[in-house]
Amino acid sequence: MSETVSLSLHGQVAVITIDNPPVNALSHSVRKGISDCLAEAAKDDNVKTVVLYCAGRTFIAGADIREFGKPPQSPSLREVLSQLDSFRKPIVAAIHGTALGGGLETALCCHYRVVNSDAKLGLPEVKLGLLPGSGGTQRLPRLIGAERALDMMIGGKPVDATTATAWGISDECTDDEILQAAMDFAKNKIDVEKLPRVSANKVADIEDDFFAAYRKKIAHRTRGFAAPERIVQCVEAAVSLSFEEGMRKERELFRLCRDSDQSASMRHLFFAERQVARVPDVPADTQVREIDNLAVIGAGTMGAGIALACLNAGLNVSLLDKDRQGLERGQATIEKLLSAAVSKGRQTATQMREQLSRLELIDDYQALADADLVIEAVFESMAIKEEVFSMLDKVCRDGAILASNTSTLDIDRIAAATSRPADVIGLHFFSPANIMKLLELVRGAETSAEVIATSMRFARQLSKIGVLVGNCFGFVGNRMLYGYGRENQFLLLEGAAPEHIDKVLTDWGMAMGPNAVGDLAGLDVGYKVRQERTDLPADSRYYRVADMLAEQGRYGQKTGRGIYLYTDGSRKPTTDPEVSDMIRQEAKRLGVEQREIGNDEIIERCIYALVLEGARILEEGFAQRASDIDVVWANGYGFPRFRGGPMFYADTIGLDKVDEAVCRFRERFGSQYWSASELLERLARDGGTFGNLANKE
Ligand code: 3HC
Ligand code: NAI
């Protein structure tokens, strides 16, 4: 017994109750408590069966992630689970909410599992760079077969109660109150003579080439990431070795994962993504405004995507465009995306109809009088945005939030077009807006705490991660992207082939290479923005390759030609010798000497450019903490989660080493781009990290 676990007797059924809010993680006191309660229940002759139950909103959601990296405290989860596995009286796990990681592993050691119909069960350790380390890799394949177990452990996605029951993870699925249902099960449905034990099962037979084929299937999406391969090795052990030998293998590989930088990085992001919503001067009890009716102005690429994201979240959406054609195009885009979701089986035609019934097309600003939140996504022009906001100011009710999706314009100037700048905020979505998880909330000088708190909650309503950023050019994500893109551009001129740069960076873990991304986003987009900027370096090499391509109408995928060629409407990039020639000649004209460029140089220049700009952003106060920058890059720009985001990655490398490389690049390529960051230099000198900076806040 402990402060988090108690034992109570109900006739001959003993109930072990875990009460460790918020998610009943398996902290030390829980492990000790379960162990003591089991010992007590074992020796009490009145106890015939045991139910393992959790108070609060969920069954055990896993090991306590905060304990990783700290000295272990006995009993370990493995010890408790082995006590559970060898327990002689029947044990039923009563599962509601989520049984995740060590939580599901605990349940798998019980003889039976009864689940609530809305429960979810999973082994998501891979999302923390780990593998299930308390028998999950050995027990789950013994219960549901190698392939399903691998899919659950490598995808990390939980399954619902119906699936879990169909697959045999759960023995009964109920709509009734879970504790009562589990106690009834314990009393009436247990054959005490034949208690099932997962560890005694054998994994169902598989084809000879199963593992080779499985590795091939996951190779692309798991490149550079160690945990998935180790999970496969554990399941190989489950198939070919005894349970005890398999457990030893799992232990050995779990330790490698747990002690790796990759897992530290992913654990960092887990907590960073929860900390990001905290804003020191916006207290948790700040009043939040209700958002039921939402309007989107501009039905183009972004407007249609934003409208769809809001429809998916159950909101009512009015969509307005300057002309009928624009509206119809927006509506068609939304319908097309919804139909695609139906044909892929992600939702039903009835759900699609219900979603569309919440969409209203409007062409009159007067119809916005009842909107709680208006998101503007018209052309990227200050004059047009000012006009739209002054109109919104006239028609919207008091208390409505007026947001702009601008990616480059000054939120304060936009806010100044209204008489209520405190109600104005930037809500910077990423394309495709219905998919990308990141939402930058751009705080203007006068944006109120209430508007920030409401926008944070709105992000959650859309299942997105809101990150509060300051009002500077490019905000956080795109501002950093400039340095990263610039190094890519210089490397091209210096002789690195686009496919070489892209391969090096994707092998390193980026979701896509910068050249493939440019072609996807459209090279005309960045070109137009650069044309309008007056503050860019006077350097004829700066974004020269991208400018040349855009000037030749080589916009990327949409024109079939960008830096790569896309033949016959394919989205697969192929090398274009014409482009290689063009770059070579331009380098010659500009006096840039071409040379062999190594992989390390590509990584260091591109990634340290990000880190340096991130340091400046922190210094200037445009991001609240280094980990917020990591959240932006992991969720908006395909930065590998197993590297934790650019700032955490720099901490992992050591800021002295990063600074040393920055100094080296300054010497070689000039201080114009590699100028010192006082913050980076100080941390490097004092042996500090960006992470500790946040902890001292
Ligand atoms: N350990 C410690 N703290 C945890 C935790 C865990 N496993 N899971 C969640 N928390 C904390 C969060 O940090 C957050 O704290 P905060 O309020 O101070 O920010 C709080 O619990 C609530 O979490 P969420 O905001 O995420 O709440 P939600 O309701 O949105 O989600 C959840 C709940 C689905 C359980 C989600 O928190 C989650 O996915 N947790 C992680 C589950 C997981 O990865 N389990 C595996 C752990 S590793 C393991 O078990 C190893 C084993 O194999 C040996
Ligand atoms: P788009 O050109 O696809 O769509 C703009 C839409 O606004 C058009 O349908 C147009 O008819 C409409 N419009 C123009 N003036 C209007 C007015 N006065 N009133 C009502 N409707 C008007 O542009 P896109 O790409 O959707 O961009 C919109 C905004 O989102 C811009 O501010 C852009 O910078 C920003 N953004 C774009 C991203 C992208 O990847 N395309 C990413 C993030 C932000």
List keywords for this structure.
about 700 residues; alpha/beta; 2-enoyl-CoA Hydratase, Chain A, domain 1; N-(1-d-carboxylethyl)-l-norvaline Dehydrogenase, domain 2; 3 domains; eight-stranded mixed beta sheet; about 50% helix; globular; binds 3-hydroxybutanoyl-coenzyme A
Number of helices: 30
CATH superfamily placement of the largest domain: 2-enoyl-CoA Hydratase, Chain A, domain 1
pLDDT < 50 runs, ≥5 residues: none
Q: What's the total count of β strands?
A: 19
Bound molecules: 3-hydroxybutanoyl-coenzyme A, 1,4-dihydronicotinamide adenine dinucleotide
Give a structural overview.
By secondary structure, the chain is an alpha/beta fold. The chain has 3 domains: 5-258, 2-enoyl-CoA Hydratase, Chain A, domain 1 (Alpha-Beta Complex), CATH 3.90.226.10; 293-469, 3-Layer(aba) Sandwich (Rossmann fold), CATH 3.40.50.720; 477-621 and 624-696, N-(1-d-carboxylethyl)-l-norvaline Dehydrogenase, domain 2 (Orthogonal Bundle). Helix content is 49%, strand content 12%. The protein contains 30 helices and 19 strands. The chain has an 8-stranded mixed beta sheet, with helices on both faces. A 6-stranded mixed beta sheet has the order 1-2-3-4-6-9, sandwiched between helices. A hairpin with an 8-residue loop joins strand 15 (424-429) and strand 16 (438-443). Helix 5 (146-155) packs antiparallel against helix 9 and helix 18 runs antiparallel to helix 24 (599-620). The protein is globular. The relative contact order is 0.06. The mean pLDDT is 96. The structure holds 3-hydroxybutanoyl-coenzyme A and 1,4-dihydronicotinamide adenine dinucleotide. 3-hydroxybutanoyl-coenzyme A binds at residues 22-23, 25, 61-66, 77, 98, 100-102, 105, 124-125, 128, 130, 132-134, 136, 274.
